[in-house]
Amino acid sequence: MYSTMQDVPLLVSRILEHGRKVHATSTVTTWTGEAEPHRRTFAEVGDRAAQLAHALRDELGVRPDDRVATLMWNNAEHVEAYFAIPSMGSILHTLNLRLPVEQLVFIVNHAADRVVIANGSLLPLLAPLLPHLPTVEHVVVSGPGDRSALDGLDVRVHDYEELLAGRATGYAWPELDERQAAAMCYTSGTTGDPKGVVYSHRSIYLHSMQVNMTESMGLTDADTTLVVVPQFHVNAWGLPHATFMTGINMLMPDRFLQPGPLAEMIVAERPTHAAAVPTIWQGLLAELAARPRDISCMKNVTIGGSACPPSLMEAYDKLGVRVCHAWGMTETSPLGTMAHPPHGLSGEEEWPYRITQGRFPAGVEGRLIGPGGDELPWDGESAGELEVRGTWIAGAYYGGADGEPLRPEDKFSADGWLKTGDVGVISADGFLTLTDRAKDVIKSGGEWISSVELENALMAHPEVAEAAVVAVPDDKWGERPLATVVLKEGATADYAALREFLGLSVAKWQLPERWALVPAVPKTSVGKFDKKVIRRQYADGELEVTKLA
Length: 549
Ligand code: ADP
Fold this sequence. Notes:
alpha/beta, Rossmann fold, GMP Synthetase, Chain A, domain 3, 2 domains, eight-stranded mixed β-sheet, 16 helices, 24% strand, binds adenosine-5'-diphosphate
C-alpha cells in the first residue's frame, strides 16, 4: 500500500529559500579585525547566492555536476557559496587550507574541480598550486589580498563582487533528485591518500534537522552561534545549513582564529553558542587566564573532533559556559553522538554522562564489534570497534569521475556499516565512551592502554597545558606509552611528580616510563593532536626522552 503523502525532494535550495524568506532578518556577521564587523541578513545572503549561481552558470559556464571548490575562511561569502553551488545542481567542494600542499593538489585533481572560489588572503597558498591543477579553469577572488600572485597563470581570474553585481536576485532552482551529490569533503588523509566523502541533498537536509533538535545543538532564532569550526571541516559541523532552517544568527571569525581575537569577538558580539575542537578551547582558556573577560554569554558550546578532556569542561563550567561533548567524522556529516545527560539528573549526577561521547540520534545506529568479529553487548564494559549506519553516514568513498565508488574492507563492513576505527564501550542506557582510536591504542603485554585516558588525567594537572600520549616500541611489553607534555609558564612539576599525579587516577601498570617535555603538541590540519608526527619524532630521535625507573 502506498502512502498518500507528497514526495517533496529534500534539497539544499529548499533550506536556502526557507531561510531567506522565513528568517529574512537573521544575520551572518563576519569579523573583519577592524572596528566594525560586516553584517548581512539571510535575505541578502539568499539574494547573493542567487546572483552567484547566475554568474557561475552564465559567465563561467558551470554545469550540473561540475565541482566548484572553495578555499575560504568562515565568512558570509562562503555561506553564499554553500547554498548557491548545490542549489544549482553543481557540487561544492570545500578545500582544507591547512592540508599539506601535495594533498591539496591530489584532492583538487581527484575531484576535477573546474572553479576555485578563494579568499584573497589565501592566494599565496593557491597560486603556486595552480600549474599542477589542470582541471581548474577559473579562480574567483573574494575579499582583500594581493592578486598579483595570479598574474601570468593559465586561469581566468574573476572578482567575486564584480561577478555578482547587477545580476538577478532570484533563481529558478532546479528540482533535483534528493540523492544527487551536493557537496564533498575529503578526509584529512591521516593514513594514505585523502578519501572523498560526497554528501547528498537528502543527507544534508536530514542532518541539518538533527543538528537543530534539542537533543543535539537545539538552537533557535534567539541564538547566535560562533562558528569556529572551519567550513572546510565537515561543513562546519552542519551549522550553515542548520542556521538557515531555524534562523540562528551566525558569527563568522574569518581568518581571526587566534585566542585573542576570538575573545574580543565574543565580548563584542555576545554569541550564545559556539562550536570548535578542544585545542581552540584550550587556547581561549589560556588567553582568558592572562586577560580575563566575561564570556558567560555563551551558554552552551559544542566541543568535538577529538576527545574533550574533562578538566577542560570543568574549567568552562567555572566560567559559566556549559560544554556539550560530541563525536563525529567526515564520513558521518559529522553528527554522530552528543552527550546530553538523561533527563532528571542534576549536578554531580550528570558528570559521568557529560564526559562520554554521548548518545546516538534516531538517524544513526551504532554497534560495537569485538576482536573476533562478534557484535558486543551494550554493557559499559565490552570494548570493540564502533560501526555506524544511518541516513547521513557515508556508504562509500568517491572513486573519481569514471571510477566506481570505493568501499575498502577496512572502512566498510560486508553489510554496509561504516567502520569508524574508534574503539570504545556503550552503556546499557546507550551512552558511547570512546577509549581510543584503534591505531592509537597502546598494546602493552596483551593489555590495552587508552592513550586518551592518560592524556585526560595528565591535562587535569594544574601545571600541564597540553599532553599527548603515544605508543612506542618496547622490548619487553611490545608497546609502552610515551608521554609528551607541554607545561604552563612558570610550572615547576618534574616527571616524577607528574607520574605520581597520574597514579592517583590510573592503574600503576599503565603509568608511562618515558617522558618528554615539548614546546607544543603537533596538530593536524583540523587542530587535532598529530600522533603520527610524535611517533616519527620519537623514532627519529628528535625528542629528548627521559626514562623513569
Ligand atoms: P580525521 O580522521 O582526519 O581526524 P575527522 O575529522 O573525520 O578527520 O575525524 C574523525 C575522528 O575524530 C573520529 O573517528 C574520532 O577518532 C575523532 N573524534 C571526533 N570526535 C571525537 C570525540 N568527541 N572524542 C574522541 N574522538 C573524537
